[in-house]
Write a structure and sequence with these properties.
Chain lengths: ~100, ~180
Amino acid sequence: MLLIRCPWCGMDRPEIEFRHAGAAHITRPGPPDRVSDEEWAAFLYLRDNPKGRVAERWRHVHGCGRFFNAVRDTVTDVFVVTYKAGEPRPPETGPGESQPTEARP
Amino acid sequence: MVDGFADTSRFRLVEAPPLARFVLRAPDTALKAAGKAYGLALPEALNHGASHGERGKPGARVALHLGPDEWWLIVPEAEGPDVAAALESALGSHPHSLVNVSHRQVGYVLEGEGAAGLLNAGCPLDLSEAAFPPGMATRSLFHRVGLMIWRMAPGLFRLEIDRSLAPYFVAALAEAAKDHS
Ligand SMILES: [Zn+2]
């Protein structure tokens, strides 16, 4: 079973305790009365679908219950790093091409 | 013993007596006041449990730190109203929520030398003592149902399961027990 490190629990935990929750670092545009339909549609619906490293929201729903962010490689399904919600994406994690990653011990 | 589950020499399952349960959501700054009012310091380390007294007996207190700002407090049923009142008055100046979830869950004790192995029939956590030592408490899954697992001693687990899902849990555990006895 794939293990995912929860940055709140500080532990590697089984994948089935987690829920995927879409792309991370999507900023909600505002204020609402000054947002065009195009901007709002982009916020709601437009997402990149890269082959390689993506930043995603995940939730440790059957654990501590918290949301956090993860950089995952869509080719290898390797979790490159996980970090708490509100923290910036670690710069060394891309964005970029899929790259071979050593599995964590 | 629990209906539908056959105890063996290696493990037995016991249903907890009626208990009062609270979910406290509060910032770290409220912990001292909460612990003082509760009569038991709330564990600061996440995924840890603390207790004193005997389950269901007067004065028994359980505090489980299950989320960054979330504690479960479990006390004898009759003491629930007093505990809630004491906490509310102690936490008046702290932003918090204290919710009575007494009837949401059923408590079980699973004990015996085969208890960890039996739990692992449906729970994906590493329940070796190195990875899950006594004192650790966390939510996880048993097959399709969520549950709370608190290891009090190497062969002693306390479990909390949503009431409506408890029959599934007991049936699944009983099925697994056939392979583990
Ligand atoms: Zn967690």
